[in-house]
Write a structure and sequence with these properties.
- By secondary structure, the chain is an all-alpha fold.
- The protein has one domain.
- It is built from 5 helices and no strands.
- Helix 3 packs antiparallel against helix 4.
- The longest helix is centred in the first third of the chain and has 36 residues.
Length: 171
């Protein structure tokens, strides 16, 4: 049983490292698409299956910009989570830094969800029956509950770190 914990942490560390690289790659790809849409917009939009509509194209570009802006936010979440995995591997899960990391992850996840709402509003706003922008967007309560859970867990880690410091001070 004890050997399974380091193996799972090793796996988590590898997965997070891969996700960090994929996030950067995604940002580069979206940036390339955005730049190409500025250079040869008609061709790019046709390749994406968009109807010739300037409002639709502007909405698509705006969504691309939001995607590009999301990359550093996702990086914040992934790197903080990776740092937490490292502290857990070292046997120090309940440290003040992890409480701060979870708090940062919670605020970042909240911001990402707000951006998700903006993307949905943009898609709805630029769509028309003759020129739809179908990005398969939907609202879900689950990510909002996850944000709430992250804020609660940050408080739990803060309290756990405080209790650990008190315990170490009494020994």
């Amino acid at each position: 049983m004890h050997d399974a914990i380091p193996a799972s942490l090793t796996l988590a560390r590898r997965v997070l490292s891969i996700l960090i690289k994929l996030n950067v790659l995604m940002g580069m790809l979206i940036s390339t698409l955005f730049i190409a849409s500025l250079i040869n917009g008609e061709w790019v939009m046709r390749a994406l299956g968009a109807q010739p509509d300037p409002t639709l194209h502007m909405g698509m570009r705006t969504i691309m910009v939001i995607g590009i802006c999301s990359v550093p936010l996702v990086n914040i979440v992934l790197t903080r989570l990776l740092a937490m995995v490292d502290t857990v591997g070292a046997g120090n899960a309940f440290v003040p830094e992890n409480a701060e990391r979870l708090q940062t992850i919670a605020w970042t996840a909240l911001l990402l969800e707000l951006l998700h709402l903006v993307v949905g509003a943009i898609a709805k706003g630029v769509s028309s029956p003759s020129h739809p922008l179908d990005i398969n967007w939907s609202f879900s309560f689950t990510p909002w509950l996850a944000v709430l859970l992250l804020f609660v867990l940050a408080r739990v880690f803060e309290e756990g770190a405080r209790m650990r410091e008190e315990l170490e001070g009494t020994v």
